[in-house]
Amino acid sequence: MTRSFFAKELEELHIDMIKMGSLVEESIENTIEALKNQDVELAKNIYESDDIIDSYEKKIERQCLNLIARQQPLAKDLRAISTALKIITDMERIADHSADIAEITIRMSDEKYIKPLIDIPKMANLASRMVNKAIDAYVNNDLELARKVCQSDDEVDDLFYKIVLELTNIIKNDVSTTEQAVNFMFIAKYLERMADHATNIAEWVVYNITGEHEKFAKYYHKDDKARKPFEK
Asked: What residues does the PhoU domain cover (predicted)?
């Protein structure tokens, strides 16, 4: 197998990863659209989308294993392939969280919401952009972009704590809101986890480029906020 053939195979791998990433972004966007509009049909479609994303994960995994078996890649190439395997796992988990939110959306479809949805869509948009930038950073070997994705996680965390505090106060003022407020807390937590997975992807990109896997969170988080009641 020649290096040109390896480069072609790697390019095909990147194309499939971009397609998978686009599906993941679309899943996040549809999830929040379904939640905002209490659209049960769209929420149900997210489950079908999750199956397609799962199939991409399996396809890319086969591509990676074939490259390792047939090409006997050099250390740098092996790093790129192992990074791809890590990234698709995080993308698949993001899609799983979209399905989790869709399930809650269906449960709450007949309820009047206890508050307008403002910060939750913001979290979703940030998480979606983080996924997009992390995949771009991988494909383009962009170290600076990967680091920016890691920094973005702080903003999502801030929104998460804001939402939890607001919902906690709503419960204190009216205990009848408890069930729905807790559902929104879970939704916020799933979005926060999506951003964490996007950060994981970016950290693997850093590993791919530098050969070192650094946890950028310890550099970018300036304070050690309490994680309760939802600890990471």
From this structure: 18-105, 120-205
